[in-house]
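Data deposition worksheet. Section B asks for the primary sequence of the deposited chain exactly as it was used as input, without tags or linkers unless they were present during the calculation. Section C holds the resulting structure in token form. Section D is free text for depositor observations; keep each observation to a single sentence. Incomplete worksheets are returned to the depositor.
Section A, Depositor: J.P.
Section B:
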Amino acid sequence: MGEQGVRSRKKGASSSAGAAVGKRTSAGAAAGKSTSAGAAAGRSAKPESHLAMVRRARRINRELAEVYPYAHPELDFRNPFELLVATVLSAQTTDLRVNQTTPALFAAYPTPEDMAAAVPEKLEEIIRPTGFFRAKARSLMGLSAALRDDFGGEVPGRLADLVKLPGVGRKTANVVLGNAFGVPGITVDTHFGRLVRRWKWTEQEDPEKVEAEVAAIFPKSEWTMLSHRVVFHGRRICHSRKPACGACPIASLCPAYGEGETDPNKAKKLLKYEMGGYPGQRLSPPPDYPGRPAPPLGAG
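Section C:
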């Protein structure tokens, strides 16, 4: 099943991302003083109840759905095998670098059978830009051989089968299931973990425990899109070292407001990808993506 067949989109997703965040950010910026005061007061107030946290979390999800109606997996892929390979390659590198690397990779090895029979040195050279290329080449050849030998050359649609493949963990399996098969799942990457802890949805550090606690907050039907929205927000606004608090559309709902730049004008300069007017991570983004495609490898 291809990507377009499993992603649902709101009407109006083609509207400008800048305009979308602009409307919501203006409210957050205007409320900046009261938000900071509220955050300070919140630290001295009684602890938030679990029910109140759940309601706030669900409201954050609704707000992010309005800001990022076009949220999507930021890896280029045309079928489950390509998404599986791209996700394995994405470990400890950017989706952009993976997307710049996979066109040549899939031109040389379009099927599991082709990749399983690759000359290791040639495969390593193609994927070298993604880093850790020797270990990744072993994983790709191993999982391709397993797909060929155990699954008839097809990517399985069950988590229990996927996690048995070399180099495939629960995070990778959920990415593939959610975006290639339409099976709901929560993808806990570094961005997702960072934001849900900032938002006090969980205090867990272990990805599986984070996944379980966040899954309990939301209906199963929301899991895949929630993952995309949170990751989009983490990459564009709520950065690790310099969160753009003053440009954040959910500032009034965030217990960590003030950890980053609160001045709206300074915060706006911290925005990334389409929010900052720059290219995204995909060379072939979906039709409703309002930003610019990323350049191919070596193009700038």
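Section D:
Residues 1-16, 27-44 have pLDDT under 50 and may be disordered.
Residues 50-67 form the longest helix (18 residues).
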